[in-house]
Write a structure and sequence with these properties.
about 270 residues, seven-stranded mixed sheet, six-stranded mixed sheet, alpha/beta
Length: about 270
């Protein structure tokens, strides 16, 4: 068993202010016993095509070093939400993960870009600026394998299933659902991905900033392999904690062996 802390933080247009807030919340989570800590999607960049390229940094840039240093200083596994990554002339929505020594142990580029146009709701086209990643990301920790995806990736159940088949018992999703899709789909989707794959599913959102360029839904949550909420936030800034009981994962999978009952020959 281990404790996870989800930092539902409110970022700023000032990257240094966002770093200050992230450091404060990570230190608080570690101080309260969280061995794995996660930040939200685009924690140091306003969620807008207008900002993704100007705020983008290479992998050897200051934000990645900042996250590595925090993981080492607090002796935690850190899933660094996501930041805007610059690689050549391409920009990615990228999550970096680190072990207790600050070594990078995973990198996930958002594989499914958020290109939607909801009538009477929201229109957003990430592909106007961002490039999609092309890998399934599962990191190794001393506790268990952890899958890492980003926001819209959760809409594609095949990705979470591949993580489970690769051994993940926890999936962490930095995600910034909005006030159209959040109320409609957040709770249902997070519970479904946990239930379908018999994993703990931890979704970490930014806190809602009604004065910001993008209004996140919030509601960071931890869902059990039985599809129940273990912990859940409202829209305000906070840290969500939960104990990840790996014996419980094994027990659920033994009692209801969904993954063993798969009929792969039918799914082609």
């Amino acid at each position: 068993m281990f404790k996870i802390g989800l930092c539902q933080m409110m970022g700023s247009v000032d990257k240094e202010e966002s770093k200050k807030k992230a450091k404060q919340m990570i230190q608080e989570a570690a101080g309260k016993g969280a061995q794995v800590v996660a930040l939200p999607e685009m924690w140091n960049c306003p969620y807008s095509n207008d900002y993704f390229r100007p705020y983008a940094e290479p992998e050897d840039g200051p934000s990645v070093q900042f996250l590595s240093d925090l993981a080492k200083a607090n002796s935690i596994y850190l899933i660094g939400g996501s930041i805007s990554e610059l690689d050549g002339d391409k920009v990615y929505n990228t999550s970096y993960s680190f072990d207790r020594n600050g070594a990078m142990i995973g990198k996930h580029r958002k594989a499914h870009l958020f290109d939607i146009d909801v009538k009477g709701g929201i229109r957003f086209m990430e592909s106007d600026t961002l490039t999609a990643g092309d890998e399934v990301t599962v990191i190794d920790t001393e506790y268990c394998k952890i899958g890492v995806a980003i926001c819209y990736d959760v809409r594609f159940p095949e990705l979470s299933r591949m993580m489970a088949l690769k051994g993940a018992k926890l999936i962490v999703l930095p995600a910034a659902f909005n006030l159209t899709t959040g109320p409609a789909h957040w709770d249902l989707t997070m519970r479904a991905r946990a239930l379908d794959n018999q994993v703990y599913f931890a979704a970490v959102s930014p806190a809602r900033d009604m004065d910001g360029v993008y209004q996140a839904y919030g509601s960071s949550c931890i869902t059990t392999p039985w599809g129940e909420f273990l912990a859940k936030a409202d829209e305000k800034e906070c840290i969500v904690y939960g104990d990840i009981d790996l014996d419980y994962v094994d027990s659920i999978r033994q009692q209801l062996p969904l993954l063993k009952h798969r009929r792969e020959e039918l799914y082609k």
